[in-house]
Amino acid sequence: MSSPEFDLIARHFAPPGAAGRGDVVLGIGDDAALLRPPSGMELVATLDTLVAGVHFPLDTDAESIGHKALAVNLSDLAAMGAEPAWALLALTLPEADERWLADFAHGFFALARGYGVALVGGDTTRGPLSVSVQVQGFVPPGAAFRRDGARPGDLIYVTGTLGDAGLALRLREASAIGAPGARAFLRLRLDRPQPRVQEALRLRGLARSAIDVSDGLLADLGHILRASGVGATLELARLPLSPAFRACLAAVEAGGHPALRSFRPGLAWADLALASGDDYELCFTVDPAHRPRLEALAADGLPCTCIGTVDAEAGLRCRLADGTPYLPSRRGYDHFAGEGS
Amino acid sequence: MSSPEFDLIARHFAPPGAAGRGDVVLGIGDDAALLRPPSGMELVATLDTLVAGVHFPLDTDAESIGHKALAVNLSDLAAMGAEPAWALLALTLPEADERWLADFAHGFFALARGYGVALVGGDTTRGPLSVSVQVQGFVPPGAAFRRDGARPGDLIYVTGTLGDAGLALRLREASAIGAPGARAFLRLRLDRPQPRVQEALRLRGLARSAIDVSDGLLADLGHILRASGVGATLELARLPLSPAFRACLAAVEAGGHPALRSFRPGLAWADLALASGDDYELCFTVDPAHRPRLEALAADGLPCTCIGTVDAEAGLRCRLADGTPYLPSRRGYDHFAGEGS
C-alpha cells in the first residue's frame, strides 16, 4: 500500500513528527498501519470518496481538493462528536504531476495539522481523478451523536450559515455577478469547508442527535427524523445566511441570472439554504431544557442558530416568517438522480 | 455516508447478524461507524482502491470485483499477521445498475463472511468505476510482521504459487490456448484471489518480516530488503509454479503466442513468477532455526516454499538451477510507468 508518488507525498509534506502522535506504532510504508487506540474509548470510522466533476468542480485547484477530501471526512467525525486522530488516503490520478501532488499535499496536510490528524498510510493509483479518505477518531462510550437520538420537543440547531457553497457552485460561471470579496467568500465555503470538529467537542453532552449538512439541510435533517421516528417544523426566517450570500443573491436576482432560474422568484434564498449541499455545517437537536447552555456557547463563540423544533408527527414542515406553510421545491442532492431530485 | 444504492447493498446482502460482531456498536446508516477495539490489541488499518482497467480487466464480472476489492485489503492485513474485523466500502459507479450491485455485493459479502468481517459503513458515488475498501484488524502488541524485520541468514518463503494471475492476464484474449480447466484456474487466481489470512495467523511468532505479492515478487521482496537494509539470493528452480501455469505456459510457448513475446524464450516462467503481480501470496522471512517448524506447518496444510535466503549484501540476486546468475528483465508493476518498468 505504497507507491513512488505516495512516498513523495509522505516524504515532502508529512515529515516524521509534523503530525507526530504517540499512538501511531507504524505509519506510512508498510502493508498497513499499526495503531494503538486509547483504552476505554470507542473508535469512530468513516470513508468518503470525492470524484472530480461530482463532488468538486473540474476547475478546482489541487490544494482545495486536498483540503476538501480530508475536510468532508472530518465533518463526518464531527457529526458523531468524535475527536479525530488518524487518516488513510487513496489517491487516483490520471498522471503523476509533481506540482499537482505538491499542491494537493499542501492542502491536505495544512488541515491535518490543524486538527492533530496523522496520515498513517494510503496509496496512489492511475485512473480518473478521485480521492478516497478514511479517518478515525475517538469518543467516550455512549457519548457519540447518533441520528436516532432526536425526541419530540427537541430544538433544532445548525452551526454557521447555509447555502453559501450551493450559491458558489451556481455562480462559478457568472464572474460578473456580486462583489469580488463576497464571491471569494462563497467560493472558499465551497472549496475549503471547515469541519466543525471543535464545535462538536463543545456540544458533547448537549446534542442528542446530529448530522453534517453535506447533501442539503432537508435531506440531511430528514435522515435524523427518519432514524428517530419523528418529524420537524422549520422556521425559514431563522435560517442563518451569510452577508456574502445575501449580497450575491440580491445581485443575481436583480440581474435575473439563469443560474437561479429553477428557484422560485424571491425565495431562492430558502431553496438554496434548504436544499443545496456542501456547507458541512452541523445540524443537531438538543433537549429544550438546554437552551440556556446553547445560548451561552453561542455567546462564547460557537456559531449556532435555532431553526426549528422536533415534532412527534412525522414529516418535515417549513414555515415562512408570517406563518405561511412553505413547500420546498427541491429535496437535496442525489448523486445518481442528478441534482434536485 | 450513506446513499440509496448503498442502503440497497447493505439491506439485501448484509442482514443484521450475517456478519454480526459484538464489537460493532453502530454500523451502516449513521455519519460514521462506532467500533469497540479489543483492549490491549494494536489496530491494523489499510485502504486500497481498485480502478477498472488498471487493477482488474474491464471484462471482469461484478461478483469478482466485489470479491477482489475486499481480498486485496485482507491480503494487506495478512501481510501484517493481523486478524480481520471491520470493513468500509466506497463504491464509485457510472450508473445505478441493480443487477450489477447485487452481483458485486454477493462477491463482497461471501468473502467477508468467510473471514468474519463486518461491513460497518461506506458510500456509493456516481463516476468512473472504482472501488475503495478500508479494512481493520487486530494484532497483539509487537506481533505484527513488518517489512523491516528481515535479518541476514533468514530463509525466504512464499505461500501458494506465483505467476498464475500474471499469466491469466496475458491469456485473457487468447481463448484457444491451454486446456479450459487450466485456463479457468488461472483466471480464478486473477479474479478471486484468496487472501492468506489463516496462513498468516499460523505464522505468528515465526515470520520475522512479510509482505503480500501484489506488484510482483521482485518488487515486493525488494520492499522488505530495502526496509531491512539487507539483500537476498533467490533460487529460481524453487519458485512454486502451479500445474495449470506449467501446462498453459507450455501451450503458449509451443504456439509462439505474442502475449509472451516480451519474455525471454524458455524463461517466461521465471519472468512471470518473479515480476507479475496480483497473486496475493505472502512472501516472508524466518530465522533458519525455525525451518523444522515451517516444514511441519507445510506438512500440516500450510502451502509454503523456501525460495532463497537473506544476505547481508544489498541487492537481489537470482540463480538458475545450475547456479548461473539470472538477471530479471522486468522488475514489477508501476501504475504510472505502465507495466514492466
Sheet with the most strands, sense and barrel status of chain A = 7 strands, mixed
Secondary structure tally, helices of chain A: 10
Average of per-residue pLDDT values of chain A: 89
Distance between termini of chain A? 38 Å
Share of residues in helices of chain A: 25-40%
| Strands side by side in the biggest sheet of chain A | 8-10-7-11-9-12-13
Most extensive interface: pair and counts? Answer: A-B, 69 and 69 residues
User: Oligomer, anyone?
Assistant: homodimer
Strand content of chain A: 25-35%
Give the overall shape of chain A, derived from the CA principal axes: globular
Q: Segments of chain A where pLDDT lies below 50 for 5+ residues?
A: 333-341
- What class do helices, strands and sheet pairing of chain A give? alpha+beta
Radius of gyration of chain A: 20 Å
SSE ordering of chain A = HEEEHEHEEEHHHEHEHHEHEEEEE
Tally the beta strands of chain A.
15
Task: Give your account of this protein's structure.
With 341 residues, the first copy, chain A, is an alpha+beta fold. In chain A, 33% of the residues lie in helices and 25% in strands. Chain A has ten helices and 15 strands. The first copy, chain A, has a seven-stranded mixed sheet, with helices on both faces. In chain A, α1 crosses α3 and α2 runs parallel beside α3. The longest helix of chain A is centred in the N-terminal third of the chain and has 18 residues. Chain A is globular and about 60 Å long.
Task: Summarize the SSE layout with pairings.
The structure is a homodimer of 341-residue chains.
Chain A: H1 4-13, E1 24-26, E2 33-35, E3 42-51, H2 62-79, E4 83-93, H3 98-114, E5 118-126, E6 130-139, E7 155-159, H4 164-171, H5 180-191, H6 197-202, E8 207-212, H7 217-228, E9 231-235, H8 243-255, H9 268-275, E10 282-286, H10 291-299, E11 304-311, E12 315-319, E13 325-326, E14 333-334, E15 338-339
Parallel strand pairs in A: 4-5, 9-12
Antiparallel strand pairs in A: 1-2, 3-6, 4-6, 7-10, 7-11, 8-10, 9-11, 12-13, 14-15
Helix pairs in contact in A: 1-3, 2-3, 4-5, 5-8
